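The records we work with from here on pair a chain with its fold. Taken together, the tokens spell out the fold as the letters spell out the chain. The record below shows the convention in full.
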Amino acid sequence: MKTLATLFIALALCVGAVWAGDVEDADAAYAKKDYATALKKYKLAAAKNDAYAQLKVGVIYDEGMGVKQDYAEAVQWYKLAAAQGQANAQFILAFKYDQGQGVVQDYKEAVRWYKLAASQGIAGAQFNLGSMYRSGQGVIQDYVEAVRWYSLAAAQGMANAQFNLGLMYVKGLGVIQDNVEAVRWYKLAAERGNASAQLNLATMYDDGKGVVQDYAEAVRWYKLAAAQGTANAQSNLASMYFIGQGVTQDYIRAHMWSNLAAVSNEEDKKKRDVIATKMTPQQIAEAQKLARECQARKFKNCD
């Protein structure tokens, strides 16, 4: 999965910088969500080749802020800013070519713009470029190059890049296979709240790969991923409760988690039914009640 959303959040908060005239006025209007005034002022500055203003006009059309959403129009403004070396515009333009949004999809053109943005230190561009090399989109597939770009993004604290590096080390893609190094990267991503990393880290503790086997630690990470709605984590947590590994054996909790996982996984329905054979009707009713309550809370504070 490639990323862009966090950049729009950052741009939405990118106000208060020291700009003169129209851009300063535009930023003030943008901060107040007066997008009509902001657009007018940004366009005045953009007409004078202000790259930042061109970027912001693109964002307004891209997001449909006070105007009809228009990806093609947004792209035209991104191109103007990107051509002047505006790194964020280069990143967004790359993503547009990558996804075929507002332009005809063109992976080679996406790679070209990702490289320009990545060379200016944009972590999202570095991550997406790594993914292009990993999948061979717009470039010849090159795992070593993928690892290089993932590493640059990961060094900036990007959780998705840290998680992907963990995967590369587990699978030995572009690097020598190394479970210990994989665990290190999974931990960094997991501590930043990456649910997939939390699941994979839990599995490493569960299986004793790259770390000393520790069922209690596995349960801790399964719980964190399960609380984010990760079905595989919920399923594995159900198994831990059923067997009594890392936790006190608890058929009610096992049934609850397998029931929640079963919403998106047919196999967990079978697991739930097996667990039910060990339970009384009253226990099953209690587990079902807990599952409903947990789902209503969006999996938070369920355990």
